[in-house]
Amino acid sequence: MSRNQRMQIAVVGSASNQLSEVQRMLAFDVGKLLIDSGYRLISGGMGGVMEQAARGARSSARHQPGDVIGVLPSYNKAEANPYIDIALPTGLGVARNAVLMAACDGVIALDGGSGTLSEIALAWQMRKPIACVGGEGWHTRLQTLALDERREEAIALCPDMDALSRFLRHLHGRNLPAYRGIAASAVKQAEQRDYLQATFADARNIGAPELLGYGSEGTVFRCGQRICKIFHPTDFTILLFTHLSGIAQTLVQSQATVAPVPLFEVHLGDYLVVHYPDFASHAYTGGQRQPMVAFLRAMRAAGCCLSNVKAENFRCTDDNRLVCIDIGRDLMPYSHALFLSMCKRAFLTVYYSAHADFKRMCRYTNDHDDFDGIAACEGVAHSASELASRFDQFYAEVTRADAVPG
Which class in CATH covers the domain with range 284-399? Predict the structure, then answer.
């Protein structure tokens, strides 16, 4: 990801050109606030709220060409409002709402009718953060502000621009995973436990499943002496099975003396499951430079990378080794770019895992080659150049020619 690839926030609302003055000014202020806050604005590119938000965005002193994007329902670029920098014709009509929601990192809804309601529903399904502003529109009728059981958090109501500013600041520190497709059904932990019981525990006589944790990708159980992660079914289950099978084979073929990831097996039936032998370990909370260096060396030797390094993705063994237990989409084949990114996040995990802005720091490394944004965080005692020098030393230790992996 290039340093110039900033988060894109969708502004949705009425396309009517008969907005009240209050609605016009609200849309204008929202558009300007987005660019002022360092985001890009993406919308349906037409009139009404979309045009006024684009006009506000263009008025920001921080506006740069390309910051205002319109995803058009028609095939004709000329139909975009005059404040759009980049017009993207789709020819999809109202179906372009799905494209718009897929392209954004968050949504701000300003009043609006059934079209806005469809965009809110799509954003909800795709797990995009949603904020509603203004005193009219569908969001005022959503009594619970939670559309279904897909997510725990509610739609954010922002009664004023200060509240919206807080919402946007919060987004900077969030780690927003890409949408992985609509789940085949609402997965119940009891159903997953029954499946593991029949497939693993009964078949292998290894004991009843014991719940260990529940996350966005799936549920983790202990089945006797094995750890089992059962994945929520999605449109991409077969691809994930193929991906993880390849990683499992890579780990075995590496013949590493000390595996940085448990040597897992992959099962695909009614559910996708990865499982591996349980091992004595305790939680890792950050710090410990040398175990992290050894882990990174071992990952390099094994031909693997981890795209989302954070303390909770590791366990620490009794002999002080770090083992990655984040076996899922974030476990990737080795590439130089991914390895460098992993090392930067590992560096931050060692020195700043407990920092309040840790997630924001990690996101900054995705978009920038420098450490300016990290040095600017409250409580960071080193300058950007000092941080860069410390990281260079860390990376050199990981990659030096005489390093013994593991």
Answer: mainly alpha
